Amino acid sequence: MANSKRDLFLKRRLRVRNKLRKMAAGRARLSVHRSSKNISVQLIDDVNGVTLASASTLEKDLGVIGKNNVEAAAKVGAAIAERAKKAGVETCYFDRGGFLFHGKIKALADAAREGGLKF
């Protein structure tokens, strides 16, 4: 039986996450989720199981509601970097999930790096 797109996505996501867990060493994880209309990101402390900071295109204060483009992803990346600094996090691992590292995901990561996050 052939794997569906969803099954392949889930396998890819787990493969990425398992590699990160091996290297984690107590650092936070920057987890990205991209839907057809929005993009969201969370800074997660896996040791304690808590979310330290989050940002999304659904937030009114970012001014990107309804926009699903590279510029909106960059604003979300800058916002998560700022919120991570407030939470006291400077280094983390970038968990792209099952998404390929290009386009919106890459723009978000580059903006977070410019904002001061190291990964």
Automatic annotation (TrEMBL):
A Pfam family that the UniProt record links to this protein: Ribosomal_L18p
BP GO annotations: translation
Single GO MF annotation: 5S rRNA binding
Keywords for this protein: Ribonucleoprotein, Ribosomal protein, RNA-binding, rRNA-binding
The keyword Membrane is assigned to this record: no
GO cellular component labels: cytosolic large ribosomal subunit
CDD domains: Ribosomal_L18_L5e
PANTHER family: 39S RIBOSOMAL PROTEIN L18, MITOCHONDRIAL, LARGE RIBOSOMAL SUBUNIT PROTEIN UL18M
Similarity field: Belongs to the universal ribosomal protein uL18 family.
Role summary: This is one of the proteins that bind and probably mediate the attachment of the 5S RNA into the large ribosomal subunit, where it forms part of the central protuberance.
Subunit structure, interactors included: Part of the 50S ribosomal subunit; part of the 5S rRNA/L5/L18/L25 subcomplex. Contacts the 5S and 23S rRNAs.
UniProt protein name: Large ribosomal subunit protein uL18
Organism listed in the record: Thioclava atlantica
Classification lineage: Bacteria, Pseudomonadati, Pseudomonadota, Alphaproteobacteria, Rhodobacterales
Gene: rplR
